[in-house]
Write a structure and sequence with these properties.
By secondary structure, the chain is an alpha/beta fold. Among the domains are: 10-174, Alpha-Beta Plaits (2-Layer Sandwich); 206-343, 3-Layer(aba) Sandwich (Rossmann fold); 359-461, no CATH class; 786-944. A hairpin with a 6-residue loop joins strand 16 (535-537) and strand 17 (544-546). Helix 34 crosses helix 42 and helix 35 (787-799) packs antiparallel against helix 36 (802-819). The radius of gyration is 32 Å and the shape is globular. This is Guanylate cyclase domain-containing protein.
């Protein structure tokens, strides 16, 4: 670099950039990489030429630039990212994804360069970013004023940069045209593991843990093999938790049971590691490259769910680098070279040294206490408990079932019935199949016992009983034998009920069982409870009935074998639709204010029903289910899940050719658009909004069309087209009034009010919202959100009227928390934080900001309409309090749950109660205009 080039001094902002995955891109493009690299450089230099940046050097795909002004550096970063994204590259796969990092600090150039730790800090910040992302330090955020139009800085919290002892607060530049969703920053303080937290005690297995620990230490692939219910997952997690410190790059748990497609196994592993797909590259290659230079342990659980895909992923991971080790659990080996197959033994049934209870008895005691409501077994039962676990050969699943039986039997009664426990329990019931002859019954039970014990120990059973093992699938031999031991004693009605209950994913009540069978289920249900195939759980409102997952899987297979799956699962879908409809209605079958809390306990059942509609049922019913969960998905931070279900339903429609009315398609597309907007996918948001409009016009439904068009402003606002969004809102509101369907345009009213607030037209916004209040109150699906009060509170904040702001925001927050609108409640907590800051309580403001940000981050919510405003207010608050005080209060708030934060916000003292309040000291009567404004600004007492 020429010495004549002027380098800034004093407070300097340093920028580092490079192309994420440049090596991979060069390999993929070959000779075509050079033009891409050159064009990338040209675009960046053209951007820098329009700013105050001074390029120090360019090396390969990297730039190092110095700026005298932090705002100019952010302007240049934003312009560069937009230029790169808008440029027409040879192919989408050839698009370079550039990461950028900025830091501001004191520096003096010498001999044409900078020798300062601030430069290294900027480089580490860039290294923490992902392709397409702009990260900056807290110092840059403080000095970057004003921000580029429409831009904001998203606080990502404190991070430890590699090579630095302190923690740096990182901010992400957010603006139209920039991608928003990224994995966590690549910093030195990433969590070392994601192992699930267990809620029950871990019993015994000390010798097995030591043996398995030695195997993992000396072999790169260890597979824990055993039957379902043998305790493989629990042991693997317990072991992995003890070796976290041995793996500097982490211990990562991946549950393959949740993966429904073999091609998604690599994606599941990558998601846990925080990796994203790269254009033009298989996910597995990205995963292997990431793991190649790292030392980590990957725990792949339930590999038998996708054995071939798991084997491929493991093989590639192990071949790609020597630092990766894999601990797998499966019901069968993976058949890979170098695999150490460790078969999990049963729990020890021998008394502990010193005469204490065996591991199996300790497990039985613990689970029996839970089954008996916390009442522990007394010493008098010790001998009988030992008899039970010995006869069950220490198999954990069998012990769990025995413990459930001990809820209604004593240990001695159970021990006496172990030769034919189920047959004995069913004796005298008309519903039970006739018992076989005594000799045959004894032989059958002895065969099962020997078979179970041999399989659990990993040895072949005696010749006389091998036929039992060969009659079952090898993969499930022990589980099949264990559950069949109970199932074969069921009569036709009890067996059918067990099969049909397998379609439910969680507990059900008696009314649900009656609905499912359309018959009185009491007799067969009693049989299933007595046989511990269904767990009865008494509670105040009545007993619920739960099936253990292994038994549910067995029953589901029986359901298919019986040819009843289509009927039973269609019936479950119908029940799910019915339950969903009931959540929207009161006892008198009239619509009530929608509470999303009513949908929380239904979520797993509705997912199970959705799964059937996309694989073997009706996609139209699936769309109806999705529609009922519309708000719930977004308010629980699950907009992405909602989008994925809709995409699968579209695929099902294409596969089956099922005819869906245009009105229902329009509603689905409209819902999809809102999910995409909440997920930060703004192009997808606009695309599905347009599809919804097209379908609504074909449906010739005026109200539906207005509702769809009312949502059009959202993608326009998200993309920064505020004037166009305002025009659309006004047109839709006018058309709705002309058509007599004003209520369907509420979304447009809210959007218009936000736009008016944004540009300072506060009086018009207040009048608009005042007129919308009765409309909102008359709509059960909208009134719980209290959007009018939230927006009026924002208008009052902009006016500096803390009294009106307090009144509106408290009403909005109380309603949103009461009805389960948790994402919206975060916005209201933020707004009350602003009200606290304006009322002279900065510490409460910082605490509430911290609490709201934590919840939004946990739910992976985008910043939303007011995101830039919250950041602006936080920056002002930080400047007022100072970094240390702000960070302390903010961190204190981050320890609060949303419920706790809401309680804190609702306890904020009303401004009228504060010393010196003049709210009610006015002598002159209010003018007509003042009265009109207050009627719009203040919630009506009847609605509080």
């Amino acid at each position: 670099m020429s010495a004549r080039i002027h380098l800034p001094s004093g407070l300097v902002t340093f920028m580092f950039t490079d192309i994420e995955g440049s090596t991979r891109l060069a390999q993929m493009l070959g000779p075509g990489y050079r033009p891409v690299l050159s064009e990338h450089r040209r675009l960046l230099r053209a951007t820098l030429a329009a700013s105050d940046g001074t390029e120090l050097f360019t090396e390969g795909d990297s730039f190092f630039v110095a700026f005298a002004d932090a705002s100019s550096a952010l302007d240049a970063s934003l312009a560069a990212q937009r230029a790169l994204s808008k440029h027409e590259w040879p192919t989408p796969e050839a698009t370079p994804r550039v990461r950028m990092g900025l830091h501001t600090g004191q520096a003096e150039p010498r001999d044409g360069e900078y020798a300062s730790a601030e430069v290294h800090r900027a480089a580490r910040i860039a290294a923490a970013a992902h392709g397409g992302q702009v990260l900056c330090s807290g110092a840059t955020a403080r000095h970057a004023a004003p921000l580029p139009p429409g831009a904001s800085l998203l606080d990502l919290g404190l991070h430890r940069l590699r090579g630095f002892d302190d923690r740096e607060r990182l901010f992400q530049l957010v603006a139209p045209g920039l991608e928003r969703q990224f994995p966590r920053p690549r910093t030195a303080d990433a969590i070392p593991h994601n192992l699930p937290t267990q809620v029950t005690s871990f019993v015994g297995r000390r010798a097995e843990r030591e043996e398995l620990d030695q195997l993992i230490d000396s072999h790169r692939l260890v597979t824990v093999v055993g039957a379902g219910g043998a305790g493989k997952t629990r042991l693997a997690v317990e072991l992995a938790g003890g070796v976290v410190e041995s793996y500097p790059d982490g211990v990562w748990f991946v549950d393959i049971a949740t993966v429904t497609d073999p091609g998604l196994v690599a994606f599941a592993v990558a998601a846990v590691l925080g990796l994203r797909p790269e254009p033009g590259r298989p996910m597995l290659e990205t995963l292997v490259e990431f793991a190649a230079s790292r030392r980590m342990l990957v725990v792949l659980d339930t590999c038998d769910a996708q054995p071939a895909a798991c084997a491929e992923v493991i093989s590639r991971l192990l071949a790609g680098g020597s630092g990766v080790r894999v601990l797998a659990t499966s019901r069968e080996s993976l058949g890979l070279p170098g695999e150490v197959i460790w078969r999990i033994p049963p729990l020890s049934v021998d008394p502990a040294p010193g005469g204490g209870p065996s591991e199996a008895v300790i497990l039985l005691l613990d689970r029996t206490a839970a089954a008996r409501g916390g009442r522990r077994s007394g010493p008098a039962e010790s001998a009988d408990l030992q008899r039970v676990v010995t006869r069950l050969d220490g198999l954990p699943l069998a012990i769990e079932l025995a413990a459930a039986r001990l809820r209604v039997l004593s240990a001695s009664q159970l021990a006496e019935r172990l030769d034919d426990v189920l047959g004995a329990l069913d004796a005298g019931r008309d519903d039970v199949e006739p018992a076989p002859a005594a000799a045959r019954n004894w032989v059958a039970n002895q065969q099962d016992t020997v078979d179970l014990a041999a399989a659990a120990r990993g040895v072949a059973p005696p010749v006389g009983v091998r036929a039992v093992q060969r009659s079952a699938t090898q993969r499930h031999v022990t589980m099949q034998a264990t559950v069949t031991w109970s199932y074969r004693t069921l009569g036709p009605r009890a067996a059918r009920l067990l099969r049909w209950l397998a379609v439910f994913s969680g507990p059900v009540d008696l009314a649900t069982v009656e609905w499912l069978l359309n018959d009185d289920p009491l007799d067969p249900l009693s049989v299933l409870v007595d046989k511990s195939m269904i767990q009865a759980e008494p509670n105040v409102s009545g007993s619920t009935y739960r099936m253990l997952d292994p038994i549910r899987a067995y029953a589901a297979r029986r359901l298919v074998d019986a040819g009843e799956e289509q009927t039973a699962r269609d019936r479950h879908v119908a029940w799910s639709l019915h339950a969903l409809q009931r959540a929207y209605l009161g006892p008198d079958d009239r619509p009530v204010t929608l509470s999303l809390y009513a949908l929380d306990p239904l979520a797993d059942e509705l997912r199970a029903a959705l799964r059937w509609t996309v694989t073997g049922g009706s996609a139209r019913q699936g769309l109806q289910l999705a529609s009922g969960l519309d708000e719930w998905w977004r308010e629980r931070g699950l907009a992405r899940e909602g989008r994925l279900w809709l995409f699968r339903l579209y695929g099902r429609i294409a596969e089956t050719g099922e005819q869906i009315p245009e009105a229902e398609l329009a509603a689905a597309y409209h819902m999809h658009s809102q999910h995409a907007g909440a997920d930060g996918e703004f192009a997808e948001e606009l695309r599905f909004s347009q599809r919804a409009e097209s379908a609504a016009r074909q449906a010739a439904d005026a109200g539906l069309l207005i509702r769809v068009l009312a949502g059009r402003a959202a993608p326009l606002i998200d993309m920064g087209q505020f004037a166009e969004a305002e025009r659309v809102c006004r047109e839709v509101i006018a058309e709705a009034e002309a058509e007599g369907v004003a209520g369907e345009a509420l979304l447009a009213v809210y959007s218009l009010a936000e736009l008016l607030w944004r540009r300072g037209a506060l009086d018009e916004a207040a009048e608009l919202l005042g007129a919308a209040r009765p409309v909102e109150a008359g709509r059960p699906t909208d009134r719980g959100k209290r959007s009018v009060d939230m927006l009026l509170g924002m208008v009052a904040l902009a006016r500096g009227d803390l009294v009106a702001a307090h009144d509106h925001l408290v009403v909005a927050l109380r309603s949103r928390m009461s009805y389960g609108y948790l994402a919206r409640a975060c916005d209201t907590v933020n707004a009350i934080a602003v009200r606290c800051a304006g009322g002279g309580d900065p510490r409460s403001a910082a605490r509430l900001f911290g609490a709201a940000q934590l919840t939004r981050s946990a739910m992976r919510c985008t910043p939303g309409t007011f995101g830039a405003y919250w950041l602006q207010e936080q920056t002002s608050l930080r400047n007022l309090m100072g970094d240390a005080a702000f960070d302390t209060a903010y961190a204190d708030g981050a320890e609060l749950t949303l419920e706790e934060a809401a309680a804190v916000a609702l306890e904020v003292e009303h401004p009228d109660l504060a010393a010196g309040s003049i709210r009610f000291s006015q002598v002159e009567p209010p003018t007509q205009r003042t009265r009109a404004r207050e009627s719009a600004d203040t919630p009506r007492e009847a609605e509080r």
